[in-house]
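ok, trying the design again with the full structure, not the truncated one.
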């Protein structure tokens, strides 16, 4: 490799980030860009009625998590603070490698780390999955900044509490980010999860607070404010 080639490579890596083995590009700040890739192995289903998020891998149940959708109901109108329904794709993953509880502003880590249920605080934390709507009824989702993200307000999970996004516990959203890749399908539905009675009775712990079949995330989390 000559000097010109070496310098060109260094500049490219510095600007574009590091390309992972999955083909995703890890940008500065822990953001992951897809480069047009699609994750065909994972599907996320969010139930507004159950306030639960279900992850499927190759069609099989992988995990289920308690979440919060919007306190303002469902919809896609700009300025409504509602959670949009329908089919989405994960367009970006933000916060990879950041600690659990890392606070984000404008999708940028601030260096502040919050503990769960920190009094008087409600920022976005740990990880962000930025969603792009794929239907007429959710076409504004990406520009509205609709995310799946971590929240310090874990005591409110299991009921509508957000301003449009889907909120999760920091360990849960970090684990979810590690499991899926860019391009994974997300479906937000108003009704119960498929087979919800079996899932809720047999797969969740008695308190319904911890996901089934979860593992420790490979990267610590990150957080943002809605």
């Amino acid at each position: 490799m000559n000097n010109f080639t070496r310098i060109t490579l260094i500049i490219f890596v510095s600007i574009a980030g590091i390309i992972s083995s999955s083909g995703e590009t890890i940008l500065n700040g822990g953001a992951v860009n897809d480069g047009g890739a699609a994750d065909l192995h994972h599907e996320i289903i969010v139930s507004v009625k159950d306030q639960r998020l279900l992850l499927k891998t190759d069609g099989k149940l992988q995990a289920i998590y308690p979440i919060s959708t919007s306190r303002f109901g469902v919809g896609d109108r700009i300025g409504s603070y509602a959670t949009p329904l329908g089919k989405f794709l994960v367009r970006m993953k933000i916060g990879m490698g950041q600690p659990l509880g890392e606070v984000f502003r404008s999708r940028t880590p601030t260096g502040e780390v919050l503990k769960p249920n920190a009094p008087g605080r409600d920022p976005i934390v740990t990880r962000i999955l930025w969603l792009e709507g794929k239907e007429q009824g959710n076409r504004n989702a990406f520009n509205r900044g609709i995310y799946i993200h971590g929240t310090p307000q874990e005591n409110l999970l299991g009921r509508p509490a957000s301003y449009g996004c889907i909120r999760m516990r920091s360990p849960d959203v970090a684990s979810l980010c590690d499991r899926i890749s860019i391009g994974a399908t997300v479906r937000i539905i108003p009704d119960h999860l498929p087979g919800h009675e079996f899932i809720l009775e047999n797969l969740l712990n008695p308190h319904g607070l911890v996901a089934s079949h979860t593992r420790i995330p490979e990267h610590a989390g990150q957080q943002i404010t809605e």
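Keeping the full-length input from now on. The chain is about 15% helix and 30% strand.
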